[in-house]
Design brief:
- The chain is mostly helical.
- It has helices at about 5-40, 45-70, 80-115, 125-130, 130-145, 145-150, 180-220, 225-265, 270-295, 295-300, 315-320, and strands spanning about 155, 165-170, 175.
- Strands 1-3-2 form a three-stranded antiparallel beta sheet.
- Helix 3 (about 80-115) runs antiparallel to helix 8 and helix 8 runs antiparallel to helix 9 (about 270-295).
- The model is unreliable at about 305-320 (pLDDT under 50).
Length: about 325
């Protein structure tokens, strides 16, 4: 009896699990915010950021998760070169948007809970005012920067031979002609994402510092019930944002190490590619679960808790994760 390839046996179901969790949960969060928009006629600043973040994760699952899952189950996906270029462009762009929007969310939460004496206080009115422009620029930036890799996308290899300096997406390939282009584009993508990772880490550290100071202050000051309600919601929202950032930083760290390995060798082992892609996709499935579990507005719109209860009307607290 031939030995069983454990990796080949587990791999399809690992990616299937991400797809069946990620896509429905992201659709549920999108539905919740659309329902909130219909009922309330507007979305608050944090709602808008979360809505775009969820949409990015949803598209990431559709453009990368579904083809990857079908491929691992043995389905022959008949893509053209143009199809591969569009898939690679979409995957790269929405992955970058997921990073930058998580960073924007953590920055906004840090700004909102910062004291009036903080230098960030001036941004409290500026972020909502320029939010549409900021999000639009992020979409444009990532789709334009994603072209550098997508133009090299092909559906099939010549003579079914993997040439050097090739990113293997398994159902598509991105082949570069020189090591300079291969390594340069790879490093540029990593450094671009690293900027947002560092910024969201700094903002999350600042949030934790404010929460620590707040907890010490609350112990010595007797507050009204209304103030206590707002403080509890504020702490819950801030902790949820920090949770999202922590998850992303851990996943990105693993992805980053494997990415550095991938651009430093001519040929990458399939197991390394599988693990790296799994952690690349993992955040898009975990993120909506965290949002559903911690966001009162999403819970109410999805009727998670019955009956629907009225939440405190503080923008950062009732609308932020």
């Amino acid at each position: 009896m031939p030995p069983v390839d454990t990796r080949a046996a587990i791999r399809p179901y690992a990616f299937l699990l991400l797809t069946v969790i990620g896509i429905p949960s992201n659709l549920a969060v999108c539905f919740a915010f659309l329902r909130a928009l219909r009922n309330d006629r507007r979305l608050l600043t944090a709602d808008i950021i979360l809505c775009h973040l969820t949409f990015s994760n949803l598209m990431l699952g559709c453009t990368r998760g579904i083809p990857q899952t079908l491929h691992t189950f043995g389905y022959k996906l008949k893509f053209t070169d143009l199809d591969c270029k569009l898939i690679i462009l979409s995957f790269r762009s929405f992955r970058g948007l997921s990073i930058s929007l998580t960073c924007l969310l953590s920055t906004y939460q840090a700004v909102v809970i910062s004291p009036a004496s903080s230098k960030l206080d001036t941004l409290k009115s500026q972020i909502p005012r320029f939010l549409t422009l900021t999000v639009t620029l992020l979409y444009v930036f990532y789709f334009v920067s994603g072209i550098s890799t997508s133009i090299h996308g092909v559906a099939n290899l010549v003579n079914n031979t993997m040439p050097p300096y090739t990113f293997n997406f398994e159902f598509c390939y991105a082949t570069f002609y020189t090591f300079t282009a291969f390594f340069g584009i790879g490093m540029a993508v990593m450094m671009r994402d690293l900027v947002f990772i560092v910024l969201m880490t700094i903002m999350s550290g600042y949030i934790l510092l404010l929460l620590y100071r707040h907890s010490k202050k609350v112990k010595s000051i007797r507050s009204s019930d209304r103030a206590q309600l707002g403080a509890r919601a504020e702490v819950k929202a801030s902790r949820a944002v920090v949770t999202l950032v922590t998850i992303y930083v851990v996943f990105f760290g693993i992805d980053c190490v494997m990415w550095l390995y991938s651009i430093s060798v001519v040929w990458v082992e399939p197991l390394i590619s599988d693990i790296r892609m799994y952690f690349t996709m993992l955040y898009s499935s975990v993120c909506p679960i965290v949002i559903i579990a911690t966001n009162p507005k999403v819970q109410a719109k999805l009727r998670v808790y019955m009956p629907e209860r009225r939440t405190h009307s503080v923008e950062t607290l009732s609308s932020t994760v």
